[in-house]
């Protein structure tokens, strides 16, 4: 993990936790990570229905965690039933938003093009995208992970300014490792993270590549987190299941420290 980039640990709650359950979890997480604020940036990404209650908690209690959403639509408003506009996230002081998660790609038809439209829409509202990328098992086994991920990144982050690119968070999540308990060896994950950073550099210049943060995601647990965080191009984690248990999530935050 590079010293110049502040580690980021983001918890993706997926379709878990009601508003009340989420508030309890945030309270427990904050207690468990006390003292890490200067060293690690921590973000929780609850379902849309819990954004208001957790935003209020963060604001009223002065909590040292950031709030993120799990998805967004690219239009400002309109007849798009079920969709959430960037300005709706802005209302709840969301600092981050996940886009292009493999589950969104698989179940909801997300493409590199739609990811890119969302990325640009978020930047118009000063919300930092957490852009997900990652390969399937067949692509991985064919030895094409790096080229596949480079193409995803190129498509997803096109059309930005170098200044915007420098603030990006890109999460490398090998699809074959999400929720399966299988993980790549840390060196292999770092190779892909380095390829992601090189792609940002080729598109927007070395300063953007140096500043952008690359996270690892895919069955991140307290037991394996420190191995990934020891790699120079991995700047933190996008955490799934372990983010739903305060003690596990806190252990990962402490490992990043």
Fold topology:
Layout: E1 8-12, H1 19-32, E2 41-45, H2 51-61, E3 66-69, H3 86-91, E4 96-99, H4 102-108, H5 112-124, E5 128-133, H6 137-141, H7 145-156, H8 162-167, E6 169-172, H9 186-204, H10 206-211, E7 213-217, H11 222-229, E8 236-239, H12 246-256
Helix pairs in contact: 1-2, 1-12, 5-7, 7-9, 11-12
Describe the structure.
- With 257 residues, the chain is an alpha/beta fold.
- Strand 3, helix 3 (86-91) and strand 4 (96-99) form a beta-alpha-beta unit.
- The radius of gyration is 17 Å and the shape is globular.
- The mean pLDDT is 96.
- The relative contact order is 0.16.
- 46% of the residues lie in helices and 14% in strands.
- Strands 1-2-3-4-5-6-7-8 form an 8-stranded parallel beta barrel, surrounded by 6 helices.
- The chain has helices at residues 19-32, 51-61, 86-91, 102-108, 112-124, 137-141, 145-156, 162-167, 186-204, 206-211, 222-229, 246-256, and strands at 8-12, 41-45, 66-69, 96-99, 128-133, 169-172, 213-217, 236-239.
- The protein contains 12 helices and 8 strands.
């Amino acid at each position: 993990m590079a010293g110049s980039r502040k580690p980021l640990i983001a918890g993706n709650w997926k379709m878990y936790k009601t508003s009340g359950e989420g508030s309890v979890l945030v309270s427990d997480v904050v207690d468990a990570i006390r003292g890490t604020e200067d060293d690690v940036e921590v973000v929780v990404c609850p379902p849309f229905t819990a954004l208001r209650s957790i935003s209020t908690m963060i604001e009223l209690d002065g909590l040292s965690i950031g709030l993120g959403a799990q998805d967004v639509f690219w239009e400002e408003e309109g007849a798009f039933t079920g969709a959430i506009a960037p300005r709706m996230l802005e209302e709840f002081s969301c600092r981050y938003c996940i886009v292009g998660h493999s589950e969104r790609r698989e179940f909801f038809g997300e493409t590199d093009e739609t990811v890119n439209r969302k990325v640009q829409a978020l930047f118009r509202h000063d919300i930092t995208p957490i852009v997900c990328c990652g390969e399937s098992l067949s692509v991985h086994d064919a030895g094409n992970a790096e080229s596949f991920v480079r193409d995803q990144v190129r498509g997803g982050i096109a059309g930005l300014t170098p200044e915007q690119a420098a603030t990006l968070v890109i999460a490398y999540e090998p699809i074959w490792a999400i929720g399966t308990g299988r993980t790549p060896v840390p060196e292999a994950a770092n190779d892909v993270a380095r390829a992601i950073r090189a792609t940002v550099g080729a598109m927007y210049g070395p300063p953007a590549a140096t500043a952008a943060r690359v996270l690892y995601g895919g069955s991140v647990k307290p037991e394996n987190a420190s191995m990934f965080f020891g790699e120079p191009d991995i700047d933190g984690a996008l955490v799934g299941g372990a983010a739903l248990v305060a003690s596990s999530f806190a252990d990962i935050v402490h490992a990043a420290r």
